[in-house]
Amino acid sequence: MDIRQLKYFIAVVENKGFSRAAETLYLSQSTLSKVVKSLEDELDTILLDRSNKQIELTESGNIVYQQGIQVLHSLDNITNQLFDIENLKQGHIHIGLPPISGTLYFPEIIKTFTDLYPRIDLQIYEAGAYKVKNALLDGTVDIVVSMELESEANLDVIPLINDPLVVYVNQDHPLARQSSVTLTDLKNESFIVLTSDYELRKKLIYECYKSNFKPSIQLESAQWDFILSMVNEGFGIAVMPYSLSSLLNFEKITTIPIENDEMTMDINFVVKSHKPLSTPLKAFIEYTKEHIQTMKFSNT
Length: 300
Description:
The chain is α/β, with parallel strands linked by helices. It has ten helices and eleven strands. Pfam families: HTH_1, LysR_substrate.
């Protein structure tokens, strides 16, 4: 049984005969009759009682007619929904977003994208880098924001932007008078850092090791605003993205550039390899790439 057979059979029923149905379908009556007969042969049952002047449905024919109507209706729904998705009139995107990335780069992007495409359901899963990556791997989310640059097996990286990392210190700290610092200048300092599931912490420790010292961690927190509040009170220093400075309301904090080209927060999208991207997701990726490039970060 195919869709054409169902459509032709339903047309015969609704037009109460082959002649009018053939006109409606722009077919010859003999062609239409052959198609309906082939459907009966395939189902091994009589669908239409042709013994009277006006054809009537048999019991089997009524079942095929009622179910066929539902099948065609479902197919129309599929076609309409696919059209809506391809034309961004509906859809669903689930994003894994670490808190710092979410705060710094995505509020405006998410707001303007949903204003542009109000019927696309955009949901956010906020967690540290390790958790959002696992959510991508297990299919909970469609895409994640990450600092990772190298593609892994089954994952593809889409670069977005680089945000310089700078040192945040209290204005009375001796380093506050310097125009820039090296990582080695920080070897005797007490650091306030993010918790261990954040890639930014891992990057900081790695770069410190490359500069031949292990950072002295005085305090750790999952909240960047708490970390900077402590810096504001003179309790240690922090290495965080420069763009955070635009959100600060702390009067006693100074930022200092770091003389190290590797000290950047590299923001990327990560998606599963070999998994087709939906049209709404492609649109969100392209929209983000275009919009985020207007964010100019400088630590000089």
